[in-house]
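Objective 1b of the project was to move from sequence-level analysis to a structural picture of ligand recognition. The entry below was assembled by the postdoctoral researcher (A.K.) and checked by the PI before modelling. It contains the amino acid sequence of the target and the SMILES of the bound compound, flavin-adenine dinucleotide.
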Amino acid sequence: MTPSSHFDIIIMGGGLVGLTLGIGLSKHGVRCAVIDPAQPETTLAPNFDGRVSSISSASWKLFQALGIAERLEGKGCPIERIWVSDGLQPGVLDFAPPQDDDTPMGIMFENRETRLALRDAALAAENLTLFQPDRATHVKRTLEGVSVTLDSGTQLSASLLVGAEGRGSPTREAANIPVAKWSYNHVAMVTAITHEVNHANTAYEIFYPGGPFAILPMQPGTRSAIVWTVPKAQAAGMLALGERGWAAEAQKRMGGFLGEIQVAAPRSSYPLGYHRAARITDTRLALVGDAAHGIHPIAGQGVNLGFRDAAALIEVIVDGMRLGLEPGDAQLLTRYQRWRSLDTLSVTVAMDGLVRLFDVPGRIPSAIRRAGLAAVQKMGPLKDRFMAEARGESGALPVLLTGETV
Ligand SMILES: Cc1cc2nc3c(=O)[nH]c(=O)nc-3n(C[C@H](O)[C@H](O)[C@H](O)COP(=O)(O)OP(=O)(O)OC[C@H]3O[C@@H](n4cnc5c(N)ncnc54)[C@H](O)[C@@H]3O)c2cc1C
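Corresponding predicted holo structure:
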């Protein structure tokens, strides 16, 4: 622990977004405490989180600006092409950057690798103190400031509290912030496969009524992650299948274009839902990441949306502190709320619409969708717009997402 228990900011939750925020603030000289009750030995263990996440090219620039990218170098797989189809029917939408642009659209990393890199960067950060494992037993927010008592007995105070505890954020609940939420009738089954044919750094999104089937390149060559979404009612039966039976079912969805496949990692499953907090600020409080919004993983945007929150909040606070304002100043929180609300609304609504659009069964809806995909494929500007979204490069970008510090 640092000699002083006063910080500029206390961040509740040291997940992917909370730690990135802490590292970014610390890099700009802002003193932070990050509190998380999880045991690092558990969350960093190989079988804790079998997911992979695509780090969009804008999020990668954030990682470069914060010195996180160098800890991940060579551990991911670049996405050079995204292939979208309605089942295995013709009428494909195919995204690839122009020939003269060699920046990948994103990089796939195992979540464990990202967690390890973030923890290393956090332990090395000068202005960041990790209280982990520890838990807040008492939190008080007033117009004057924030005070927190930890299970270990340590007392902390700060100008601003940040809720980054994921979907069920106790900080958001305690602030009585209303949340719009619903569950999808979907469960995501996640694993890794090896396959005969090289994936050529392509991410495949094959949409079926009942849920999308995603094949995401994990390592250059013949290893991919699978995120296979099925209706809830089918999930238990599918998960009860042996590896061979499960692989045979997966192969039917893939149509054999990657050759023979084998399951190469334990299978895990996640129920899926949507939620969005009505506001992301309160007195001396800001929410980031899944504490503020959670979306279907259909386009791999969830954590990238959280990184955009972190980048915007860092910019707002660093700009404000340079002008002599406190991090918890209400004017700064208003700027953060305004900046993030349009982006999170448009992305969360678009993702929800996509889930519903492809969930409608039948030949006519499928024909309409395929005509739509074929039309977008031919329309350069619209396709460029979708590609900018996938790269996380649309809208009013925080400066960190361009690779520069504030
Ligand atoms: C199947 C699946 C696939 C996905 N794939 C992708 C993808 O490809 N790309 C993508 O961008 N997104 C993806 N996502 C979404 C992504 O995983 C989340 O958006 C991301 O994990 C959110 O990060 P976070 O730090 O906000 O929250 P979390 O990762 O949930 O972290 C919350 C942290 O808070 C801590 N915590 C909990 N309670 C407390 C407390 N009381 N006090 C303090 N700390 C607490 C936890 O220990 C944890 O460390 C996927 C999600 C799912 C379910």
